[in-house]
Design goal:
There is one protein chain. This protein is mostly helical. It has one domain. Helix content is about 75%, strand content about 0%. The chain is built from five helices and two strands, in the order αααββαα. It has a two-stranded antiparallel sheet with strand order 1-2. A hairpin with a 3-residue loop joins strand 1 and strand 2 (about 130). The chain is globular and about 50 Å long. The N and C termini lie far apart (about 50 Å). The mean pLDDT is about 90.
Length: about 190
């Protein structure tokens, strides 16, 4: 009995974190489209590498934040959270910038280029793959993710029943896997 309970807890943990991944991937896609359409006025294009409205790099970045940075502030008093804000900012900035750099190399390896080749005109850029300005935005985004969004997402997911969690998890996972499979077919063919 105890082993099954532990197994259920692991599966619930995985399902919730996958849903966090997807929420942030969708949030990241919306952010990218907002920048493209409203801020830069370039017009709409799908900002992700997949067909759906999500940028997985934001999901992976958020998971890095959740596992590596969030423990510094989760469950702490407001005063402790405010004191940690500089550290949280720096850790989010550094980890997201490193993730973006690694992701650019992976995309280039498998797809011949990386989708955000827009940093060449930014001051303080490295190979147009990363730049200081977006890195600062990553740090600020990490603050928003961890201080505002993540506690809200946790509350929302903790309120839903296990049945609804399963339906959400398997539905979103199925759609994502179909999308990923379509991308692989597109790359191979």
């Amino acid at each position: 009995m105890k082993k099954n309970k532990s197994k259920d807890n692991v599966f619930t943990f995985i399902k919730k974190h996958y849903l966090y991944f997807m929420m942030y991937a969708i949030f990241g896609w919306c952010y990218e489209v907002f920048l493209e359409v409203v801020v830069y006025k370039w017009g709409f294009s799908n900002r992700g590498v997949l067909f759906g409205p999500y940028c997985p790099v934001y999901g992976f970045g958020a998971l890095i934040f959740i596992f590596c940075v969030y423990p510094l502030i989760k469950g702490k008093s407001l005063k402790e959270k405010l004191i940690a804000m500089g550290t949280v900012f720096f850790l989010c900035m550094a980890s997201a910038t490193l993730l973006e750099l690694i992701t650019s190399y992976i995309c280039e390896l498998f797809m011949g280029s990386w989708p955000w080749q827009t940093y060449s005109s930014y001051p303080y850029n490295f190979q147009a793959r990363i730049a200081l300005s977006p890195s600062v935005r990553f740090g600020l985004g990490g603050i928003i993710f961890l201080y505002i969004l993540q506690p809200l997402f946790e509350k929302a997911l903790n309120k839903i029943s296990p049945k609804v969690l399963n339906i959400l998890f398997y539905t979103i996972l199925t759609v994502f896997l179909i999308d990923l499979f379509a991308l692989i077919i597109k790359i191979v063919l």
